[in-house]
Amino acid sequence: MKNSNLIIATALSTALFTTSGLAHNKHSGHIQAPVSPGVATEFDIVHAKVTTQGSHLIFQQAVKGQVGAKLPVANGKLAGADVFSYVWPTSLNSAAVGFEADQGILALALTVHPDFDDTPLYDEDNDGNKSNDGDKWHSHWVVLVPDNACGEGALKVKDIEKGSSPALPKTWPNLPIFIDSPGFDFSLEGSEVLVRVPLSAIGFSDNFSFDGVTAGLKINQQVHAPLLCVTDVFDIASGDLSLPGKSQ
Fold it and tell me: What is the pLDDT of residue 124?
Protein backbone atom coordinates (compact mmCIF):
# COMPACT_ATOMS: atom_id res chain seq x y z
CA MET A 1 0.00 0.00 0.00
CA LYS A 2 1.56 3.23 -1.11
CA ASN A 3 1.44 6.27 1.16
CA SER A 4 2.85 9.74 0.84
CA ASN A 5 6.01 10.55 2.75
CA LEU A 6 4.04 13.21 4.61
CA ILE A 7 1.63 10.61 6.00
CA ILE A 8 4.53 8.30 6.79
CA ALA A 9 6.51 10.93 8.67
CA THR A 10 3.47 11.84 10.74
CA ALA A 11 2.70 8.22 11.45
CA LEU A 12 6.26 7.45 12.47
CA SER A 13 6.39 10.41 14.83
CA THR A 14 3.06 9.42 16.35
CA ALA A 15 4.15 5.80 16.61
CA LEU A 16 6.81 6.74 19.14
CA PHE A 17 4.04 7.34 21.64
CA THR A 18 1.14 5.20 20.39
CA THR A 19 2.69 1.82 19.63
CA SER A 20 -0.32 -0.46 19.71
CA GLY A 21 -0.39 -3.97 21.07
CA LEU A 22 -1.12 -6.97 18.87
CA ALA A 23 -1.75 -6.93 15.16
CA HIS A 24 -5.38 -7.49 14.23
CA ASN A 25 -5.06 -10.83 12.47
CA LYS A 26 -4.98 -14.54 13.24
CA HIS A 27 -1.25 -14.54 14.13
CA SER A 28 -0.84 -12.96 17.55
CA GLY A 29 1.82 -10.28 17.28
CA HIS A 30 2.39 -10.79 13.55
CA ILE A 31 1.25 -8.54 10.71
CA GLN A 32 -0.70 -10.07 7.82
CA ALA A 33 -0.81 -7.69 4.85
CA PRO A 34 -2.92 -7.79 1.69
CA VAL A 35 -1.40 -7.91 -1.77
CA SER A 36 -0.94 -4.34 -3.01
CA PRO A 37 -1.75 -3.78 -6.69
CA GLY A 38 0.83 -1.56 -8.35
CA VAL A 39 3.68 -2.50 -5.98
CA ALA A 40 6.54 -4.51 -7.49
CA THR A 41 6.13 -8.08 -6.24
CA GLU A 42 9.64 -8.20 -4.72
CA PHE A 43 8.61 -5.32 -2.41
CA ASP A 44 4.94 -6.21 -1.87
CA ILE A 45 4.82 -7.27 1.80
CA VAL A 46 2.31 -9.97 2.75
CA HIS A 47 3.61 -10.87 6.22
CA ALA A 48 5.96 -9.48 8.85
CA LYS A 49 6.97 -10.81 12.24
CA VAL A 50 9.70 -10.73 14.89
CA THR A 51 10.19 -13.89 16.92
CA THR A 52 12.68 -15.14 19.49
CA GLN A 53 14.59 -18.30 18.64
CA GLY A 54 17.09 -19.25 21.31
CA SER A 55 19.56 -16.39 21.72
CA HIS A 56 18.38 -14.48 18.64
CA LEU A 57 15.54 -12.29 17.44
CA ILE A 58 14.43 -13.25 13.92
CA PHE A 59 13.14 -10.29 11.90
CA GLN A 60 11.05 -11.57 8.98
CA GLN A 61 9.23 -10.21 5.96
CA ALA A 62 7.50 -12.22 3.27
CA VAL A 63 6.65 -10.66 -0.07
CA LYS A 64 4.46 -11.71 -2.98
CA GLY A 65 7.38 -12.29 -5.35
CA GLN A 66 11.09 -13.14 -5.17
CA VAL A 67 12.66 -11.28 -2.27
CA GLY A 68 15.81 -9.29 -3.13
CA ALA A 69 15.31 -9.78 -6.86
CA LYS A 70 15.46 -6.08 -7.75
CA LEU A 71 18.63 -4.03 -7.22
CA PRO A 72 19.29 -0.31 -7.70
CA VAL A 73 20.86 0.79 -10.95
CA ALA A 74 24.45 1.92 -10.37
CA ASN A 75 25.27 5.49 -11.38
CA GLY A 76 29.03 5.26 -10.77
CA LYS A 77 29.23 7.84 -7.98
CA LEU A 78 28.11 8.49 -4.42
CA ALA A 79 26.09 11.62 -5.25
CA GLY A 80 22.56 10.58 -6.11
CA ALA A 81 23.22 6.90 -5.33
CA ASP A 82 20.11 4.79 -4.83
CA VAL A 83 19.45 2.37 -1.98
CA PHE A 84 16.81 -0.38 -1.76
CA SER A 85 15.79 -1.62 1.66
CA TYR A 86 13.63 -4.00 3.66
CA VAL A 87 12.98 -2.17 6.94
CA TRP A 88 11.51 -2.96 10.36
CA PRO A 89 10.69 0.30 12.23
CA THR A 90 10.49 -0.45 15.96
CA SER A 91 9.49 1.11 19.26
CA LEU A 92 12.97 0.43 20.65
CA ASN A 93 14.83 3.43 21.99
CA SER A 94 17.87 4.41 19.94
CA ALA A 95 20.00 3.77 23.04
CA ALA A 96 19.13 0.05 22.89
CA VAL A 97 21.80 -0.53 20.22
CA GLY A 98 24.36 2.06 21.32
CA PHE A 99 23.16 5.35 19.85
CA GLU A 100 22.43 8.43 21.92
CA ALA A 101 19.03 8.01 23.60
CA ASP A 102 15.76 9.39 22.21
CA GLN A 103 17.06 10.28 18.74
CA GLY A 104 14.11 9.11 16.64
CA ILE A 105 12.67 5.88 15.26
CA LEU A 106 15.13 2.99 15.56
CA ALA A 107 14.78 0.65 12.59
CA LEU A 108 16.52 -2.50 11.44
CA ALA A 109 17.19 -2.52 7.71
CA LEU A 110 18.57 -4.87 5.11
CA THR A 111 19.92 -2.75 2.28
CA VAL A 112 21.78 -2.83 -1.04
CA HIS A 113 23.44 0.03 -2.97
CA PRO A 114 26.00 -0.63 -5.72
CA ASP A 115 27.63 2.84 -5.66
CA PHE A 116 29.14 2.83 -2.16
CA ASP A 117 30.17 0.56 0.71
CA ASP A 118 29.17 1.35 4.30
CA THR A 119 30.30 -1.87 6.00
CA PRO A 120 34.06 -1.24 6.45
CA LEU A 121 34.49 -4.07 8.96
CA TYR A 122 33.21 -6.79 6.64
CA ASP A 123 34.17 -8.38 3.33
CA GLU A 124 30.80 -9.63 2.13
CA ASP A 125 32.06 -11.17 -1.12
CA ASN A 126 35.30 -12.56 0.39
CA ASP A 127 37.51 -11.03 -2.29
CA GLY A 128 39.98 -9.51 0.18
CA ASN A 129 38.58 -5.99 -0.25
CA LYS A 130 36.29 -4.65 2.48
CA SER A 131 35.35 -1.48 0.58
CA ASN A 132 33.62 -2.81 -2.55
CA ASP A 133 30.63 -4.70 -1.20
CA GLY A 134 27.77 -2.20 -1.34
CA ASP A 135 26.14 -4.23 -4.12
CA LYS A 136 25.66 -7.11 -1.67
CA TRP A 137 22.72 -7.09 0.76
CA HIS A 138 23.77 -6.22 4.33
CA SER A 139 22.24 -5.16 7.65
CA HIS A 140 22.02 -1.81 9.41
CA TRP A 141 20.46 -0.14 12.39
CA VAL A 142 19.30 3.36 11.43
CA VAL A 143 17.57 6.21 13.21
CA LEU A 144 14.80 7.81 11.13
CA VAL A 145 13.48 11.34 11.56
CA PRO A 146 11.38 13.71 9.40
CA ASP A 147 13.19 16.45 7.47
CA ASN A 148 11.46 18.74 4.97
CA ALA A 149 14.82 19.22 3.24
CA CYS A 150 14.23 15.74 1.81
CA GLY A 151 10.80 16.81 0.58
CA GLU A 152 7.73 17.97 2.44
CA GLY A 153 7.19 15.63 5.38
CA ALA A 154 9.83 13.19 4.13
CA LEU A 155 12.08 11.03 6.28
CA LYS A 156 15.83 10.68 6.42
CA VAL A 157 18.48 8.76 8.28
CA LYS A 158 19.30 11.29 10.99
CA ASP A 159 22.42 13.36 10.35
CA ILE A 160 25.09 13.86 13.01
CA GLU A 161 25.44 17.58 13.56
CA LYS A 162 28.88 18.93 12.76
CA GLY A 163 30.89 19.40 15.94
CA SER A 164 28.67 17.12 18.04
CA SER A 165 29.85 13.89 19.66
CA PRO A 166 26.81 11.69 20.28
CA ALA A 167 27.04 8.16 21.62
CA LEU A 168 27.40 5.72 18.73
CA PRO A 169 27.60 1.92 18.40
CA LYS A 170 31.02 0.30 18.26
CA THR A 171 30.32 -0.81 14.68
CA TRP A 172 29.33 2.68 13.45
CA PRO A 173 30.83 2.92 9.92
CA ASN A 174 32.29 6.42 10.35
CA LEU A 175 29.57 8.16 8.36
CA PRO A 176 27.99 11.46 9.53
CA ILE A 177 24.59 9.83 10.11
CA PHE A 178 22.95 7.68 12.77
CA ILE A 179 23.69 4.33 11.13
CA ASP A 180 25.28 1.15 12.40
CA SER A 181 26.77 -1.72 10.40
CA PRO A 182 26.48 -4.70 12.76
CA GLY A 183 27.01 -7.50 10.22
CA PHE A 184 24.02 -9.60 11.28
CA ASP A 185 23.39 -12.94 9.58
CA PHE A 186 20.51 -12.90 7.11
CA SER A 187 18.92 -14.88 4.32
CA LEU A 188 17.01 -13.99 1.16
CA GLU A 189 15.28 -17.15 -0.03
CA GLY A 190 12.17 -17.45 -2.15
CA SER A 191 9.66 -14.91 -0.91
CA GLU A 192 11.16 -14.51 2.58
CA VAL A 193 13.84 -12.25 4.05
CA LEU A 194 15.18 -13.08 7.53
CA VAL A 195 17.67 -11.17 9.69
CA ARG A 196 19.08 -12.84 12.82
CA VAL A 197 19.78 -10.32 15.60
CA PRO A 198 21.49 -11.57 18.77
CA LEU A 199 19.46 -10.69 21.86
CA SER A 200 22.71 -9.37 23.32
CA ALA A 201 22.81 -6.75 20.54
CA ILE A 202 19.86 -4.88 22.05
CA GLY A 203 20.72 -5.56 25.66
CA PHE A 204 17.37 -7.07 26.70
CA SER A 205 14.61 -9.41 25.55
CA ASP A 206 11.47 -7.41 26.42
CA ASN A 207 8.74 -7.31 23.80
CA PHE A 208 8.61 -4.31 21.50
CA SER A 209 6.36 -3.08 18.70
CA PHE A 210 7.34 -3.08 15.03
CA ASP A 211 6.15 -2.67 11.46
CA GLY A 212 7.43 -3.75 8.06
CA VAL A 213 8.38 -1.39 5.23
CA THR A 214 10.01 -1.69 1.83
CA ALA A 215 11.59 1.55 0.64
CA GLY A 216 13.98 3.36 -1.66
CA LEU A 217 16.47 5.92 -0.35
CA LYS A 218 18.89 8.26 -2.09
CA ILE A 219 22.16 10.00 -1.26
CA ASN A 220 21.92 13.79 -1.55
CA GLN A 221 23.34 15.08 -4.85
CA GLN A 222 25.47 17.55 -2.84
CA VAL A 223 26.61 14.75 -0.48
CA HIS A 224 25.88 16.74 2.67
CA ALA A 225 23.13 16.96 5.24
CA PRO A 226 20.52 15.70 4.74
CA LEU A 227 22.78 12.93 3.48
CA LEU A 228 20.39 9.99 3.07
CA CYS A 229 16.70 10.61 2.38
CA VAL A 230 13.78 8.22 2.06
CA THR A 231 12.58 9.00 -1.46
CA ASP A 232 10.03 6.24 -2.06
CA VAL A 233 8.00 3.95 0.16
CA PHE A 234 7.00 0.87 -1.80
CA ASP A 235 4.84 -0.87 0.80
CA ILE A 236 3.93 -0.83 4.50
CA ALA A 237 2.86 -4.04 6.23
CA SER A 238 0.31 -2.35 8.50
CA GLY A 239 -0.77 0.15 5.84
CA ASP A 240 -0.43 3.09 8.22
CA LEU A 241 2.81 2.59 10.19
CA SER A 242 0.95 2.11 13.45
CA LEU A 243 3.57 -0.47 14.52
CA PRO A 244 0.92 -3.09 15.32
CA GLY A 245 3.35 -6.01 15.42
CA LYS A 246 4.64 -7.33 18.72
CA SER A 247 7.89 -9.24 19.07
CA GLN A 248 7.39 -12.75 20.45
Answer: 61
